[in-house]
Each structure stands twice: as C-alpha cells, then as structure tokens.
C-alpha cells in the first residue's frame, strides 16, 4: 500500500508538470511542422488507447520522479546566500530552516523526550546553548557566520532524523498520520515547483512583446541567483550533492534567452498586419493566475512542513514516555 501511495503521489506531480511541458513545446517547437505536430498526428491516428495510456503513465511517473527529486533539493538548498561584513543574507524558508526553527521552538517550550540517549542529549544541549532564545533560526538576515548556521541546522537535522526513523520503525498503522503529512509535502512541493516553471515560461512569453531592453532584465531574475548559488555550491559543498537548484535556474535563464531571441527574430522578419501582435502576446491574467496558484501551493507546503515536523517531535516524546510493554 505504501509503494502504491508513493507511486500515486509521483504520478500526480508528473501530471502537474504537463502544462509547462506543453508551454515548452509551444514556445520552441510550434513552427516545426515535421517534428512535434507530425508526431502528435501519428499518435492520434494509431487509435491505440491502451498503448497511449501506458506511455502516458510511464511519462508521468518518470517526469514526476525527476521533478520530485529536483523540487526536494530546490526547497532545501542553502547555496543561495551572500555574506556581507558580519551579516549573512540567506533564504529563510527552506525545509532545513523550517525544521530548525520548529525544533528550537519546541525545545524552548520544553517539548523534549524525557529519556534521551547520551549522544542526543549532548547534541540537544549544544543546540540550545547556541541559540537559547531562537533569535536566529529561519531568518533572512543573520548576524552570524555561515558555518555557525550550518552547525545549528546539522544538529537539528541529526536529532530530527533519529526521531523520525524511530517512529517509522513502528509500522504503517502507527504512523498513518505522519505518512499523510509526508505525502502532502511531496505533492505540494512538486506542484509548487511545476507552478514556478510554468510561471517562468509565461513570464518569458509575456515579456517578449516589449520592444525595449527591459525585457532582457527578466533574465537577471534567474541568471544572478543561479550564478551566486553555483559559486557557493562548488566552493563550499561536497561533491556528493548535485547542484539541482543551480542547474534549474541557469537552464531557465538560457531558455528565457532563447524565447526572447526567437521572438526578436520573428519581429524583425514579420510584416505588420492585423493579428500579428496578438500572436506574440499572452494575457497578463494567465500569469497572475499561475502566480496565485503557485503561491497557494507554496504556502500549503510551508504549513504542512511545519505540521509534519511538530508531529514527529511530539510523537517521539509520547513514544519515549510510554511505559514499556
């Protein structure tokens, strides 16, 4: 049942990726008469719904698996930061920073296991002493060094993963609520990532109608963060951690440049006539709708991540205080 649930969540994430896949086909292959269109026509003429269904299932599962893994790293990447003087400017909403803040808040309220092992107790005391008032967890501007933040987050991650593993060993029935939260996190995180990709391509398409150099400024929204994160990744991180977020941002910047360049060539070659300008435009309402849906998915993931972390910590305390059978 657990394997089916995981596959179902992966298929949902892959299905939600189809809108931006269609945008890619429209923006880059709409004029290729011998390519995409002919392929689609051949598929429809075959009249083989079973084969088509199997291919769509395989495509959705493969795409969902890739998107889920990239989205997990994208929402938990610590490479996008800048150290200026004694202040660290970073992304305050990541999976690790949320978990660190939740763990710090629960420690401050005394929600801890009463029978911890010695190693966990030492780590917890070290974590508490570094930031006893929770002033620096999940903050965008931190008056501390980057190494100190990494140490705090690593301590919280070690303690949390031990507690999570202890709960998962209890079996499916005892952790049903945890698994529901985990499945929701996976779907909402993947849906938010799909929405971000769709918004990016819609933004490139919409900005292509402007005839000034301002439309090229959109690329800086992806090129600058991607360059900073890439530099920090290869100068600070281990080689075992793939640069998923950096790869995504730089690929989006390259794709946006291609879209703007193609539209610019079409503007230079086309003859002015009725309806020619509308072919280059996408309604701003579509972008606003996509942004709202993406923001809703992001807020849902944020809230569910907090609920999941709290549920693990409280459940572990209840488990440790339960009398032995």
Task: Give the helix level as a range of percent.
Answer: over 70%
Q: For the record, give the distance between the C-alpha atoms at the N and C termini, rounded to a whole number.
A: 28 Å
Largest sheet: 3 strands, antiparallel
If you compute it from the alpha carbons, what radius of gyration comes out, rounded to the nearest whole angstrom? Answer: 24 Å
Number of strands: 3
Strand order of the largest sheet: 1-2-3
Q: Based on helices, strands and strand pairing, what is the structural class?
A: mainly alpha
Uncertain regions spanning at least 5 consecutive residues: 271-280
Count of separate DSSP helical elements: 11
Any idea what the shape is?
globular
Estimate the strand proportion: under 5%
User: What string gives the helices and strands in order?
Assistant: HHHHEEHHEHHHHH
Averaging pLDDT over every residue, what do you get? 79
Overall number of structural domains: 2
Please describe what this structure looks like.
71% of the residues lie in helices and 3% in strands. The protein has two domains: 2-74 and 179-302, no CATH class; 81-169, no CATH class. Helix 1 (2-16) runs parallel beside helix 8 (176-207), helix 2 runs parallel beside helix 8 and helix 4 crosses helix 8 (176-207). It is globular, with a radius of gyration of 24 Å. With 325 residues, it is mainly α. Strand 1 and strand 2 (87-90) form a beta hairpin. It is built from eleven helices and three strands; from the N terminus they run ααααββααβααααα. It has a three-stranded antiparallel beta sheet with strand order 1-2-3. 26% of the residues are buried.
